[in-house]
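Throughout our pipeline, every protein is held as a single compact record rather than as scattered files. Nothing more is needed to write down the fold, since each code stands for a local backbone conformation. The record that follows is passed on verbatim for readers who wish to inspect the format.
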Amino acid sequence: MHSNLKLKEEKTLHSDRTILVVDDDAMFRDRVVRALANRGYRAFGASGMRDAVAQAQSISPDCIFLDLRLGDKNGLDVLPEIKRAAPQARIIILTGYGSIATAVTALQHGAADYLTKPVNIEQIITYAGGTKTGMPAASQPYSIPPLDRVEWEHIHRVLQDCDGNISRAAAVLGIHRRSLQRKLAKRPFPTK
């Protein structure tokens, strides 16, 4: 009985907030939209760039969760269009392929924050600004990543700076091309 009362209070608290979830993974997107709706948010889903831009224009969301990989599109390429369609929205990049380089690029393109999958609904609500005050919550406390992850992210940043050219990235890093390819094939931490 107590949990039902809490859920009713939560629904009333968030009924004026609209959230758009843009992700090409239909099961993940639908689960997040349903969980947000159950907590009283006006929640909508979009599967691709065109749908996301159209929905952003029509529903004027307060917050947009944008997947970094949308089929054959990159969420960072879609970000400026969505930002133009809903300039008032707080855009949070969601990805299972997190790196420092893509986080920095996302923030430079206008994203408010960056969230690495797997995520739970409580994290999404926190990032959407769903605190009792209705203000955006501060980012999670920073923790020092392991050395192998820092190296992996540095390699990907250099590769991104070299426009994906492995030979040039290997020269910049001072390692053999095949060694770079082996390092790129290994991910030193789980993605889930």
